Amino acid sequence: METQKLTTGKNLVTGFPLPFILLILLSFYNPLTALSQQTKGKVSGTVISSDGQALPFASIALMDKDGQTLKGTLTDTVGIFQFPAIPEGHYQIKISTMGFTSHQSKIFEISVHNQHIHLGKLTLLEDAKLLSNVTISAQKKLIEQGIDRTIINVENSILSEGNTALELLEKAPGVTVDQDGKISLKGRPGVMIMVNGKSTYLSPKELSTLLKGTNANSISKIEIMSNPSAKYDAAGNGGIINIQMKKNTLTGFNGTVSLNGGAGRNARYGSGIGLNYKTSKVNFYGSYNYGYRGETEYLDFVRNFYDSGIASGTPDRTSNQHTKTNEPLHTNNFRLGVDYQLNDNSALGILINGNIGKYTHDSKTSNLLSNNAGMLLSNMATSNYDKQNWENLTYNLNYLYKFKKEGRELSADADFASNSFTSNLNLNTITLAAAPNQPNTDISRRGYVPAVTNVYLAKLDYTDPISKTLNLETGIKSSVTNSDNNLIYDLLNNGNWEYDNNGSNHFKYKEEIHASYLNFNKSFKSFSIQAGLRGEYTHTEGHQITTDSLISRSYFQLFPSVFVNKPMGKNHQLQLAYSRRIERPDYGDLNPFRVFRDPLLYYQGNPFLRPELINTIQLSHSFKEKYTTAINYSQTSDVMTWMNGQIDDINTTYEMPLNLNRLINYGISFTASTAFTEWWSGTHFANVYRNEYKGTGESGSFNSNATSFNFNTQNSFKAGKGYSIELNGLYNGGSVYGISKYKANYMVSAGAQKLILNEKATIKLSVNDIFQSRQLRGNTIYGNIDMSSHIRFDSRRAILSFSYRFGNQNLVKKERRTGSEDIQNRVKGGG
User: Fold this and answer.
1) What's the mean per-residue pLDDT of the chain?
2) How many CB atoms lie within 10 A of CB 392?
3) Mean pLDDT computed over 607-636
4) Cα distance between residue 786 and residue 734, in whole Å
5) How confident is the model at residue 822 (pLDDT cuts 50, 70, 90)?
6) Which of 335, 491, 469 has its CA nearest to residue 407?
7) Which of 151, 187, 229, 575 has its Cβ near the most Cβ atoms within 10 Å?
8) Distance between CA atoms of 470 and 528, rounded to whole angstroms?
């Protein structure tokens, strides 16, 4: 057995100007303007209901002593609010939220000797009259922009109906999705996808399939974090996107049913039901969603081959490949859980999440190979039929203990995730005679890919507000992942199936990650700072059983993060954020097996991939909590990139992941929340960024770069009488990925909804990609590689949906957090 052991331990801030960071941090200690010098204190508190439950998203108005409103904010998900940077003076606050009577505080004073006014727990009483006569239908804004994250309230979006989670991400500000489902944020690849605060532990292909199989009907909101704190896993160089699933928390028995149907190039339809029963002690909840998505896509590839080995001049041969795919997808999503309040201080929860589905890739490909005189050399017709099934089940046990001291909490989680994926592949190629006397040839290949990945995880988190101005977070986490992928290929020879020794491969992978973190949040007179440090020890073993070789790696890394907030008067706020993160190779990318699209195009993993490390810094400015400008810079070393290769003498092209030297990404973005009129509101995002790749491929060193522009606008219109309209537009400028460059594309979508049946039911009609303009065009010229691609997605579709809410829909209770905030992202299994 061949064994290779690698131990790595890179510098704390590899390749980043640390003195520059310290200089900027020190500058925040000085007053920036005369206005900031006048800032003396802050006001904070917690809003709860009469039964002690925190009330999220309650409106808080800061008023002067005469009752004139000066500033407004909302409570967060645990009912906490604060107004920083308040000048000396006399103030009062007013609290209001649907279903409760308003509360107005007594007048209080901020002075040199009384800088922090902590109002404690403020109780709102239920408005019995309102609850008995009115169904609460208030909604949060579609997109909320925070200092550290962007929140998309999917359940409020008309355009979410009939879509999948992956299609929703395509419309998210700053997010781009390529043809393989890989996700980038502000031009940075390697985004970590979480579901309900848990990593998915799936390979990119399996994750893409999971997101395609997750109905938007079951999603509550999407959180986008470009610079997460040390509390979160260090994985995800591009940042973290957390998909939060719906969980009904209304008191009593209630539920929702939904139906949707429509078509693009093929039919789409789905249905779902969610049920909830909640008392003062226990909350039972469950949901089930079924979806069918028919899809047809067209792919065109043109590849030029040069006998000289250099892509220049007139090609000696040209391959024109056209593929039509039919890809029906059936998905079943369910979740079942119970939360039990053991006593006033502790709660226990059990949750089961499931995603079961089947997907068929049925494609027909024609490949015409001609010489430079236009003479046909070969005419290949390939049929590729791949039937895939998957089953993702996650079991979670969580415990939360609240100490007597307000804000001090201890949470524990234990998870087991079972992920299975199977693929039954049949690949048949007929090479038709290019000349009258040539015979036809027939090559058939079949494959069976069973992949199983099991994840075991335990974590413990502790939060303690040490003082009014100092908060501590700490925790530990361990995860063990075992993946088994056994690819079996057979070739048809004279009517008999024979085992393919060259194509088959059995690969096992084990990964252990043990982590701990410490995070402090400290408020000073004129600014606040959050500093954290996370340490992660990683041990991996990749065992290629077919060749009896073992690659083992062990390494320990530190991941610091720093966030500095500087209020500048009533309307302005600055934030500086720095973090170091890691992107480990996924298990599928490490597996060296080959997956064939046709005999002349295949994909192959690389068992020698190294993890990539990124240092990123961002300076942002917020004006009136509505307009945010951010400047960001990041540098990634050992950046993992899929690279094309070519074997000219057999006219074959392949793709495999390699470590490039570095990727530098920098840019500026602007986000605006607007309310042009009482009936028109929107959120708009613009981003200009530059990516610079430097690396070495099979044909030598290269530098590949491009400046790109992204724009996204989301608009909501109130049309009266229960009608509302939504309009979304996005534009993705030309971009670069490794040695490949891609052209710009855009998409416009629109939808309308009507509330009916006493506002308990909703009818929605949406049209996605009205002009069918989301098409991907790319080209690659490097060494002996000269190829172009054109992919026409099945993105234009019309969907009609209906949803109905029944049972008690009036009294909104705060959803208790289980303490499980960040668990799964990379179960890498089959192809």
Assistant:
1) 82
2) 26
3) 91
4) 19
5) very low
6) 469
7) 187
8) 10
Structure tokens at 695: 């690396």
Q: Give 445's DSSP letter.
A: E
642 and 733 assigned to the same domain: yes
Q: Is the Cβ–Cβ distance between 507 and 592 less than 8 Å? A: yes
- Per the structure, how many domains does the chain have? 2
Q: What is the pLDDT of residue 2?
A: 39
In three-state form (DSSP H/G/I as H, E/B as E, the rest C), the secondary structure along 518-584 is: EEEEEECCCCEEEEEEEEEEEEEEEEECCCCEEEEEEEEEEEEEEEEEEEECCCEEEEEEEEEEEEC
Give the confidence band of 547 by pLDDT, cuts at 50, 70, 90. confident
Contact 88, 15 (CB under 8 A): no
What are the tokens at 639?
């950046």
Residue type, 462: Y
Question: How many Cβ atoms from other residues are within 10 Å of residue 819's Cβ?
Answer: 23
Q: Are residues 78 and 216 in the same domain?
A: no
Residue 813 forms part of a structural domain: no
Average pLDDT over residues 252-268: 91
> Which pLDDT band, with edges at 50, 70 and 90, does 27 fall under?
very low
| Cβ-Cβ contacts under 8 Å for 482 (sequence gap 6 or more) | 453, 454, 508, 509, 510
Helix (H) or strand (E) holding 36: helix 34-37
pLDDT at 824: 34
**Dist CA 261 CA 270 (whole Å):** 6
- Same domain for 259 and 348, yes or no, is yes
Residues 648 and 739 in one domain: yes
Kindly give, in sequence order, each residue whose CB lies less than 8 Å from that of residue 98, ignoring residues fewer than 6 positions away: 130, 136, 138, 812
Please check whether residues 332 and 445 belong to one and the same domain: yes
pLDDT digits (tens, 9 = 90+) for 415-435: 999 989 899 999 998 988 766
* Distance between CA atoms of residues 148 and 561, nearest Å: 13
Cα–Cα distance for residue pair 305/645, rounded to 1 Å: 12
Q: Which two tokens stand for residue 493?
A: 């020879």
Per-residue pLDDT, 140: 57
Asked whether the beta carbons of 387 and 358 are under 8 A apart, the reply is yes
CA nearest 774: which of 176, 152, 187?
176
> Where does a domain end: 103, 133, 163?
133
Nearest to 415 by CA among 214, 200, 587: 200
User: Any idea what the CATH number is for the domain that residue 121 is in?
Assistant: 2.60.40.10
Its domain, for residue 38, covers 31-133
Say if 830 falls within a structural domain.
no
- The pLDDT tens digits for 104-154 are 888 988 887 788 888 888 888 876 444 444 433 444 566 665 556 777 777
Instruction: Give the pLDDT confidence score for residue 704 in this predicted structure.
Output: 92
* Alpha carbons 782 and 303: distance in angstroms, whole number: 12
- Identify whether residues 540 and 470 lie together within a single domain: yes
Query: Are 520 and 597 in a shared domain?
Result: yes
Residue 125 lies in a domain: yes
Average pLDDT over residues 149-170: 71
Residue 612 tokens read as 């990539």
Q: Is the dihedral of CA 28, 30, 36, 41 positive or negative?
A: positive
- In this structure, the answer to whether residues 37 and 157 fall within a common structural domain is no
Instruction: For residue range 305-363, list pLDDT tens digits in order.
Output: 998 888 888 999 999 999 999 999 999 989 999 999 999 889 999 999 898 999 999 99
Q: How many Cβ atoms are within 10 Å of 688's Cβ, its own excluded?
A: 16
> How many angstroms separate the CA atoms of 35 and 572, rounded?
10
8 pLDDT band, cuts 50/70/90, is very low
Does the residue 17 lie in any domain?
no
Which pair of tokens denotes residue 432?
């038709």
Q: For 409-447, give one letter per residue: b (16+ CB within 10 A) or e.
A: bbbbbebebebbbbbebebbbebeeeeeeeeeeebebbb
Per-residue pLDDT at 479: 93
Share of the chain above pLDDT 90, in %: 41
**What pTM value is reported for the model?**
0.75
